[in-house]
Amino acid sequence: MFLRNYWYVAALADEVRDRPLGRTLLGDPVVLFRTADGSLHAFEDRCPHRQLPLSMGKLVGDRLQCHYHGLQFDGSGKCVRVPGQDHIPAKAQVRTYPVVERYRWVWVFMGDPALADPAQICDFHWLADPEWGAKPAYLHVEANWQLVVDNLLDLTHLAFVHETTIGNMALVEHAAVKVQRAPNNVLVTRWIIDQPAPPTFVKVGKFTTNVDRWQIIDYTPPAFLRLDVGASPTGTGAPEGRRVGGIGMRNLNAITPETETTSHYFWAQAHNFEPGNPQMTETVFQQIKTAFLEDVAVFTAQQRAISLRPDALQVDINADAGGMQARRIVDRLHNEEQTAAAHATAAE
């Protein structure tokens, strides 16, 4: 199940250069490339002649050339050259997608182009804010995209999956949790008061006493999660908004479905302490990367088990509240999209 009338992250900005990059998004093959002036283009990754992926071709000037018979397509997707003949078939046209570069990511709109308003792109400004140190990354996940969303909305798993980095038992046994739902948003707030800091926080925050720790997860459909996380020494006023003497980070997540059982996972870690220190940025990033690779192992194992027994019993616990609310939002939005599409088809 995919929501189509949304902007999705298709690539890291520096992945898309003057050579074609093929990527499957929401089950559709897409090829990305830049022309000489840096302009971005996104085409269906399929030559209309004999269906060879255009990502196997190359750029000739500002034209994308098919590797099979050399047909060339301009930035509008129109075929402008067929080697060996003057006549160009009128139907020799490649589908194009709206594409935008923002927040060091390349975004593609996968639905009705008439609805592609860049103002609707989810806010990830921390990636481009000089007041924050940040590093983005990409992971390919052999799992359905909603498993990744579930994981990020339930941080009790940190105590078990990430006990050597960002987790400890205080997250499970001493957390005050609040789940709030708006029509198209889920906000999960967790406070862990007067408890030991986990290993990563000790390493980068140099805590020697107990801390007041916060985890505020902001979910926006289809699959964008922005986590406000950090800690301050206990009693310094963090729950009241005075985050002094501690550390603050943003964990930024944009999950793009590839197929029903695989996903593109774009993520980044930003920090507001020593923002101009590349070494600190790398230290924080590597600590979180370790945790994320542990998560990927979990997603992969979950998907294997689900694929073997799709009808197996699955029970819910309190920790699932955020993920369940997010799935309900997605179900409603999907039904609305399908209804609108059916009406549009009937009106044609």
Report on this model:
The protein has helices at residues 145-153, 158-161, 170-173, 199-205, 278-308, 321-347, and strands at 7-12, 21-25, 28-34, 40-44, 58-60, 63-65, 72-73, 79-81, 99-102, 105-109, 133-141, 175-182, 185-195, 211-220, 224-233, 247-257, 263-271. The chain has two domains: 7-119, Rieske Iron-sulfur Protein (3-layer Sandwich), CATH 2.102.10.10; 122-333, Alpha-Beta Complex (Naphthalene 1,2-dioxygenase Alpha Subunit, Chain A, domain 1), CATH 3.90.380.10. It contains six helices and 17 strands. A hairpin with a 5-residue loop joins strand 16 and strand 17. The strands form four sheets. The chain has a seven-stranded antiparallel sheet with strand order 11-17-16-15-14-13-12. It has a four-stranded antiparallel sheet with strand order 5-6-7-8, with no helix packed on it. A three-stranded antiparallel sheet has the order 1-10-9, with no helix packed on it. It starts with 6 loop residues before the first strand and ends with a helix. It is of the alpha+beta class and 348 residues long.
Distance between the termini: 25 Å
Overall mean pLDDT: 91
The succession of helices and strands, N to C, reads EEEEEEEEEEEHHHEEHEEEEHH
Count of the domains = 2
Low-confidence stretches: none
Biggest sheet layout = 7 strands, antiparallel
Under CATH, the homologous superfamily of the largest domain reads: Naphthalene 1,2-dioxygenase Alpha Subunit, Chain A, domain 1
Secondary-structure class: alpha+beta
Strand order of the largest sheet: 11-17-16-15-14-13-12
Output the number of helix runs: 6
Radius of gyration: 23 Å
How much β-strand is present in the residues? 25-35%
Text of the CATH class of the largest domain: Alpha Beta
The level of helicity is 10-25%
CATH topology of the largest domain: Naphthalene 1,2-dioxygenase Alpha Subunit, Chain A, domain 1
Name the shape in a single word: globular
Overall strand count? 17
Question: How does CATH name the architecture of the largest domain?
Answer: Alpha-Beta Complex
